[in-house]
Amino acid sequence: MDKALIDQLIQTVRQELIPQLKIESIDPHDPVVFTYLPQPWQKLGAGNYAAVVYHPDYPHWVVKIYAPGRPGFEEEVEVYRLLGSHPAFSECFYAQNGVLILKRLYGVTLYDAIQRGLRIPKQVIEDIDQALDYARKRGLYPHDVHGRNVMMYEGKGLVVDISDFLHEDKCGKWDNLKRGYYWLYRPILAPLRIKIPYFLLNVVRKTYRFFSKLKQAGDGIFAKISRRHHKKKHS
């Protein structure tokens, strides 16, 4: 780590980026929207709560900024503290007032890879699995791991977004993605190199979210009925 460059970047963020940047989170289930990004900053990505940008003079780091009113900053800082250093994860070098400076991870998300018809090697999936196991051993709970939050670079798997890794509730997104990878992608899509348009991927994403909520609601109702039945049985 070049501390002098990091210090310069911090000053640039404070003096040039934050006073001018305008982002908003219209819907917590959709990516943050940029309304103004000062030059020469470049947009790198947008999650549901935060945006990620970089400066051409500091290509090895990114700046993640939480949208006004959106939670999760303190939790993400704690996750990076617990993670320490691992090749499949980024590292945090600065965190203050909803702004993080992170090591830049290069690559393409699995979501984009499918859209572009790129081959996703099995090693990528295995690397991500091993990285998530590492996180669990560090006392974390891999959560919200899906196609937009994982990447591949030179045949290796990377985990991009770890902001929800303190959530202890069970999350099956990564298991579902792996199931789709082994059952659908490897035997059918990969050999054909089919490009899936973004609008269709978005339909799949929203349909998955709808049925996940439906299942959660159903599980909750079933649990309540089971508890009532148990109480009546023992009353």
UniProtKB/TrEMBL annotation:
<keyword id="KW-0723">Serine/threonine-protein kinase</keyword>
<keyword id="KW-0808">Transferase</keyword>
<keyword id="KW-0418">Kinase</keyword>
<dbReference type="InterPro" id="IPR011009">
    <property type="entry name" value="Kinase-like_dom_sf"/>
</dbReference>
<protein>
    <submittedName>
        <fullName>Serine/threonine protein kinase</fullName>
    </submittedName>
</protein>
<dbReference type="GO" id="GO:0004674">
    <property type="term" value="F:protein serine/threonine kinase activity"/>
</dbReference>
